[in-house]
């Protein structure tokens, strides 16, 4: 009874990708990972399996199983529903984040496991779709025939297995391309939930005024996106989208135009030199201010002063 109870508790808790082998024992043929100082974004394993019956807890990442050799009847249960398919080399199974599952197959197979971290999925959802990842739901397909997805996993595996000059950059780019493809083609976006969340994320009147006051007070300084986000009390990742919804332009465009307007006012209303005005309005130098003002107004600061 004690062993069964521990098993049940374990199955209710999500596990890390490297711990899957405890629940689905097999021969590890190769493994590698990718990421940066902030954390691992992708984990990969090649595993040889005999016929097996597996009960596994959810995983804290998206799992893709790429079938490399052997063919078998595969049965899988996710969310109390069993599905069955005959898988051959080149087929792919996908399982969403934190989805407990049961698997059964009756022949020897060799597979590649690719785990895309929740952090990587979240960053790509924000970057590509301007949406939080929890608004996306993985399509838990047992047998996917997707040549583009297969090509991306093949290229990524080759780079992970044979590290060479530039591998870190190429691995990062391939991981992003793979993640984007999975989001676009093998997830469903809950648009109603996303739109409702976006409405809840709108600037309040007080937040909007704090940002305006901060920009006006600091036009002569080089401040960052993080400084603006902190002023509004918002997350740096979502701030640009929320700012654009409130101001109808990006933070960079807004700050640049405020500098142009301040420079034009100083050109017309003071005797300050153009170099001094450039310094006081945050431009790198007089030439930079001249280019930006002319592009925005069609006239140089000198022409505006003489007008």
TrEMBL record:
<dbReference type="GO" id="GO:0003700">
    <property type="term" value="F:DNA-binding transcription factor activity"/>
</dbReference>
<keyword id="KW-0238">DNA-binding</keyword>
<dbReference type="InterPro" id="IPR009057">
    <property type="entry name" value="Homeodomain-like_sf"/>
</dbReference>
<keyword id="KW-0804">Transcription</keyword>
<dbReference type="InterPro" id="IPR050204">
    <property type="entry name" value="AraC_XylS_family_regulators"/>
</dbReference>
<dbReference type="Pfam" id="PF12833">
    <property type="entry name" value="HTH_18"/>
</dbReference>
<protein>
    <recommendedName>
        <fullName>HTH araC/xylS-type domain-containing protein</fullName>
    </recommendedName>
</protein>
<keyword id="KW-0805">Transcription regulation</keyword>
<dbReference type="InterPro" id="IPR018060">
    <property type="entry name" value="HTH_AraC"/>
</dbReference>
<feature type="domain" description="HTH araC/xylS-type">
    <location>
        <begin position="209"/>
        <end position="307"/>
    </location>
</feature>
<dbReference type="GO" id="GO:0043565">
    <property type="term" value="F:sequence-specific DNA binding"/>
</dbReference>
């Amino acid at each position: 009874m004690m062993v069964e109870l521990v098993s049940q508790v374990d199955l209710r808790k999500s596990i890390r990708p490297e711990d899957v082998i405890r629940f689905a024992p097999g021969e590890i043929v190769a493994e590698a990972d990718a990421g940066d100082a902030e954390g691992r974004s992708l984990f990969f394993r090649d595993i040889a399996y005999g016929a097996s019956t597996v009960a596994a807890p959810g995983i804290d990442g998206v799992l893709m199983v790429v079938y490399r050799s052997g063919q078998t009847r595969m049965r899988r249960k996710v969310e109390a529903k069993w599905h069955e398919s005959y898988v051959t080399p080149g087929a792919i199974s996908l399982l969403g984040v934190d989805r407990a599952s049961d698997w059964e197959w009756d022949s020897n197979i060799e597979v590649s496991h690719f785990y895309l971290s929740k952090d990587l999925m979240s960053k790509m959802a924000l970057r590509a779709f301007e949406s939080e990842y929890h608004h996306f739901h993985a399509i838990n397909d047992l047998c996917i025939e997707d040549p583009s997805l297969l090509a991306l996993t093949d290229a990524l595996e080759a780079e992970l297995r044979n590290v060479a000059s530039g591998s870190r950059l190429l691995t990062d780019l391939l991981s992003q391309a793979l993640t984007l493809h999975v989001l676009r083609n093998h997830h469903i976006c809950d648009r109603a939930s996303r739109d409702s969340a976006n409405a809840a994320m709108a600037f309040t009147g007080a937040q909007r005024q704090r940002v305006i006051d901060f920009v006006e007070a600091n036009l002569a300084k080089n401040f960052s996106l993080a400084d603006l986000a902190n002023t509004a009390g918002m997350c740096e990742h979502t701030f640009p989208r929320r700012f654009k919804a409130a101001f109808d332009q990006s933070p960079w465009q807004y700050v640049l135009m405020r500098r142009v307007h301040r420079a034009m006012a100083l050109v017309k209303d003071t005797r300050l030199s153009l170099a001094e005005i450039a310094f006081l309005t945050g431009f790198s130098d007089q030439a930079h201010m001249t280019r930006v003002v002319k592009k925005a107004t069609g006239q140089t600061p000198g022409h505006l002063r003489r007008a």
